[in-house]
């Protein structure tokens, strides 16, 4: 049976093919569908700003036009013209058209048979960019910002899709692109003048990343040098440091045209200096072509690695005595996960020890006995309205600091039972309190294996009472912690 069907179909298909050879598919479509074009990109996004730099070099804005339709064998030509102020107003009331004196626009784009996509370059010379920068600086503050605005049209029978018949991009001119020094997770402080990076505890290699805010159309050279002369100013601001001995893989770098990032690797040899001493690598970064000079200081962090087996409640309460996952949330590196006191339900830090430590946590450092101590905690930065009330009852904790410690106590010990009290610190005497706090540096008489940290006072919760700091056991608000860090040594720069 199958053989008979096959034998029957073959001649039928052959006959159909012969008939189709005299059939013109284009006859089935109106002429307006034979060739259709439109802008490939998003035609307008107010936050997609084209930035130029006043460096005496040319720049351009590139977009693409795509061609479709039923007959790819035809030639299609698209005309390009700048929009007038009236025309751009049909699409946005927030921008006005960039005057044509500041750019050169191709008059047309032609698609040869079979071509499906063409690039369009709107060019600005270095002189035009400089003139535009001057014009922008002189404009009235309330003047509408400029946007490059191009419209498409055709007179050769090509159909321009109405929703893809224009291209609008806001434009600005800056003097030089910003330079960001990283990596971000190794950055302690960053300003327009200096960046402080750090080696983490145990790290021997660190790549200093240098990222430009935008790619440039030319190659840009950079130099990175260890400059001991920078130490004097650094020490004036951050205490006395000496120069650490590191190896740097290269001193001359280059951003090839179109790229934005390069890096240089530093290798620390612990046999050549003591990390517990106040040491720093002073670097001077220069991009002469862009007139950029940046001071970079690489210090050595000394955070003790913590795991959940090292942390317990001061009263030996189980982990479920917290609103949150204890102690995992304290060491997961995520500020938005936390542990929270249970307020009136008798959970977490239930036993108020005394006015020295309040409700405490004990950290067992194991074999990492420390001779100098610094402690840091973090709380969440985005907190919801406090549980147990409504937004009418209590302001959110981001406004008033509730759920954040206001006074804390610190102690150390060698056995986890007997303690040397280091002192209490008032974090804040106001209703607000910081979400990131670091203690002072304590020089210990003896090396300590155990650290005891407690929340002593928080803020009075009742909005109808006089607002004040109160001891936790006397009605203070519950509190919460997100991250906990212990540092060994005289480190002012932390992980």
Summarize the structure in words.
The chain has 495 residues and is mainly β. The chain has three domains: 25-174, hypothetical protein (bacova_03559) (Immunoglobulin-like), CATH 2.60.40; 179-300, hypothetical protein (bacova_03559) (Immunoglobulin-like); 308-488, Sandwich (Jelly Rolls), CATH 2.60.120. Helix content is 10%, strand content 38%. The protein is built from five helices and 33 strands. The protein has helices at residues 2-20, 85-88, 126-138, 231-238, 397-400; strands spanning 36-39, 50-53, 59-68, 76-82, 96-97, 108-111, 117-124, 146-153, 159-160, 166-174, 179-182, 187-190, 194-199, 205-212, 220-226, 242-243, 246-248, 252-255, 261-268, 279-287, 292-300, 311-313, 339-340, 359-364, 370-378, 407-413, 420-426, 436-438, 442-448, 450-459, 469-471, 480-481, 483-488. The strands form seven sheets. Strands 12, 13, 15, 16, 18, 20 and 21 form a seven-stranded mixed beta sheet that branches. A hairpin with a 6-residue loop joins strand 26 (407-413) and strand 27. It is elongated, with a radius of gyration of 34 Å. The protein starts with a helix and ends in a 7-residue tail after the last strand. Mean pLDDT is 82; it is low at 1-23, 342-351 and 383-400.
């Amino acid at each position: 049976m199958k053989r008979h069907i096959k034998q029957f179909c073959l001649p039928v298909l052959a006959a159909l093919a012969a008939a189709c050879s005299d059939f013109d598919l284009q006859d089935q479509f109106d002429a307006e569908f034979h060739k259709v074009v439109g802008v490939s990109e998003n035609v307008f996004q107010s936050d997609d700003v084209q930035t130029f730099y006043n460096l005496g070099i040319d720049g351009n804005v590139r977009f693409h036009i795509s061609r479709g339709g039923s007959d790819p064998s035809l030639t299609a030509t698209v005309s390009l013209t700048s929009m007038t102020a009236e025309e751009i107003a049909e699409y946005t009331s927030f921008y006005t058209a960039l005057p044509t004196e500041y750019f050169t626009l191709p008059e047309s784009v032609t698609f040869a048979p079979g071509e499906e996509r063409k690039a369009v370059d709107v060019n600005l010379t270095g002189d035009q960019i400089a003139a535009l920068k001057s014009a922008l600086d002189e404009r009235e503050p309330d003047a509408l910002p400029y946007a490059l605005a191009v419209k498409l049209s055709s007179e050769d029978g090509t159909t321009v899709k109405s929703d893809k018949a224009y291209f609008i991009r806001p434009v600005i001119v800056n003097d030089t692109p910003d330079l960001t020094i990283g990596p971000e997770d190794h950055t302690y402080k960053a300003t327009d003048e200096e960046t402080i990076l750090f080696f983490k505890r145990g790290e021997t290699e660190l790549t200093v990343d240098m990222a430009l805010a935008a790619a440039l159309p030319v190659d840009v050279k950079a130099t990175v040098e260890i400059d001991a002369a920078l130490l004097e100013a650094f020490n004036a601001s951050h205490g006395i440091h000496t120069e650490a001995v590191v190896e740097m893989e290269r001193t001359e770098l280059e951003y090839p045209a179109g790229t934005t990032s390069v890096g240089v690797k530093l290798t620390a040899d612990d046999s050549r200096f003591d990390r517990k001493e106040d040491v720093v690598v002073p670097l001077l970064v220069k991009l002469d072509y862009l007139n950029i000079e940046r001071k970079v200081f690489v210090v050595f962090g000394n955070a003790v690695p913590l795991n959940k087996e090292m942390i317990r409640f001061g009263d030996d309460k189980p982990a479920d005595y917290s609103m949150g996952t204890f102690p995992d949330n304290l060491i997961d590196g995520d500020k938005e996960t936390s542990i929270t006191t249970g307020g009136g339900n008798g959970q977490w830090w239930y036993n108020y020890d005394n006015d020295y430590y309040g409700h405490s946590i004990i950290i067992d450092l194991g074999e990492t006995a420390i001779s100098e101590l610094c402690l840091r905690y973090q709380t969440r930065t985005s907190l919801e309205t406090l549980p147990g009330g409504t937004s009418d009852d209590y302001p959110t904790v981001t406004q008033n600091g509730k759920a954040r410690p206001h006074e804390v106590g610190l102690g150390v010990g060698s056995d986890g039972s007997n303690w040397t009290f280091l002192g209490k610190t008032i974090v804040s005497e106001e209703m607000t309190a910081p979400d990131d706090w670091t203690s002072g540096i304590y020089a210990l008489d003896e090396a300590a294996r155990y650290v005891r940290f407690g929340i002593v006072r928080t803020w009075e919760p009742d909005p109808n009472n006089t607002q004040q700091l109160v001891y936790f056991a006397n009605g203070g608000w519950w509190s919460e912690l997100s991250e906990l860090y212990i540092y060994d040594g005289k480190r002012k720069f932390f992980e």
